[in-house]
Design goal:
About 65% of the residues lie in helices and about 0% in strands. The chain is an all-alpha fold. The chain starts with 15 loop residues before the first helix and ends with a helix.
């Protein structure tokens, strides 16, 4: 029985390093040049692969740190005392007690406490402006 040599595609895979060494040592300059170009391209691909791996690691680390930061901020929010709300008194260009006294003297009904109604304040201002003339 005669044994046939299997086609090149069915043969055991040729290691890349061995193929490149064969090409670079070849007598035909075009083959040697292609071997050198292939080695350069593989070196570049290895560098790009390493960068891609580093980027993936950095992105995973970023996600881990963002999660940790979110947890710390939640803890801070739970532990931080709530600020007391302060009410600001409205800025007035009059003394409420003076306006109340004037309103009572003028026979107007004015509440003893709280904000003096705008209509009373407007009447007081008009009377002050009229008295200043």
């Amino acid at each position: 029985m005669i044994q046939q040599t299997p086609p090149a595609s069915a043969a055991a895979p040729l290691p890349v390093g061995k193929l490149l060494a064969w090409a670079e040592a070849h007598d035909i300059k075009a083959v040697a040049r292609k071997g050198a170009q292939a080695r350069d391209l593989l070196r570049e691909l290895r560098g790009l692969y390493a960068q891609d791996e580093q980027l993936a690691e950095a992105e995973a680390e970023e996600q881990r740190l963002l999660q940790q930061l979110e947890e710390v901020r939640g803890l801070q929010k739970r532990l931080r005392p709530r600020a007391a709300r302060t009410r600001r008194s409205p800025v007035r260009d009059y003394v409420q007690a003076d306006v109340r006294s004037w309103a009572r003297a003028a026979g107007l009904s004015v509440p003893a406490t709280g904000t003096v109604p705008t209509t009373i304040v407007d009447a007081w201002r008009a009377a002050q402006a009229g008295g200043a003339q």
